[in-house]
């Protein structure tokens, strides 16, 4: 099975409150796990950094949804690569401080 790793940064629009997004995290996590997608997400102010990993088609479909989501502004893809194994296989979608996610991207 081909596995895909995508990381990106974006900005949550000023009309969106981070608390609202955080309230949806469990729903996102459950949906992603059902798709076989794991990763890591970090918030700092209105900035978001996320790593998505999983089956090619599932990760691409999810990333396409994220890119089309009007809550994400100034989205920039940082990495798009095939990987042999998922770094966050047992994590689901963990929330970490931004510095941790930047560090983790250097390890993958």
From TrEMBL:
Pfam families documented for this protein: BLUF
Gene3D superfamilies documented for this protein: 3.30.70.100
InterPro entries: Acylphosphatase-like_dom_sf, BLUF_domain
Name of the molecule in the record: BLUF domain-containing protein
Membrane-spanning ranges: none
Signal sequence bounds: none
Gene Ontology MF terms: blue light photoreceptor activity; FAD binding
BLUF domain location: 3-94
């Amino acid at each position: 099975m081909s596995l895909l790793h995508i990381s990106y940064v974006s900005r949550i629009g000023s009309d969106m409150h981070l608390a609202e997004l955080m309230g949806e995290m469990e729903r996102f996590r459950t949906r992603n796990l059902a798709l076989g997608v794991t990763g890591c997400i970090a918030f700092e102010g209105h900035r978001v950094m996320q790593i998505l990993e999983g089956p090619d088609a599932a990760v691409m479909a999810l990333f396409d949804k994220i890119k089309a989501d009007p809550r994400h502004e100034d989205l920039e893809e940082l990495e798009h690569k095939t990987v042999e194994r998922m770094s966050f296989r047992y994590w689901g979608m963990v929330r970490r401080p931004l510095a941790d996610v930047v560090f983790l991207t250097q390890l993958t």
